[in-house]
Amino acid sequence: MNYKKYEAAVHYSEDDQIFWGEVVNISSPTTILFEAENAKDLEREFHQSIDAYLDICQQKGKEPKKPMSGKFLLRINPQKHAKLSARVLSENTSINQWVSEAIDERLESTH
Questions:
Q1: 3-state secondary structure of 84
Q2: Are strands 2-3 and 18-23 parallel, antiparallel or unpaired?
Q3: Are 33 and 48 in contact (CB under 8 A)?
């Protein structure tokens, strides 16, 4: 779910029989959680939680944490994509994790 550029991951608790969500694109230690018994109410609770967070920041004179997308599109040729898929499978990792580590290594080597 997305609202005002904030993104939430949605989960379901079988024990409590509720849906719950958390904002995933702001940095720690800020945590925004919300819950509801159905999808419609969960979306409303998400919007209210974001609005409350923004209001509290404004009342305290603090700048709210800006949402980060954490996403970018990467286009590579199909042969490289196939090789990468085979490599991450053999290393028991994901493409996202592998690329993220490669970016970290490259950023560190440029200093």
A1: helix
A2: unpaired
A3: no
Each residue's pLDDT tens digit, 11-58: 999 999 999 999 999 887 889 999 999 999 999 999 999 999 999 999
Count CB-CB contacts under 10 A for residue 65.
Answer: 17
Contact in structure between 1 and 47 (CB atoms under 8 Å): no
Enumerate the domain spans of the chain.
2-60, 78-109
For residue 47, which of 84, 79, 7 has the smallest C-alpha distance? Answer: 7
Q: Which residues pair with 12 in a beta bridge?
A: 19
Residue 40 amino acid letter = K
Q: Give 12-35 as a DSSP string.
A: EETTTTEEEEEE-SS-TT---EEE
Whole-model pTM: value is: 0.63
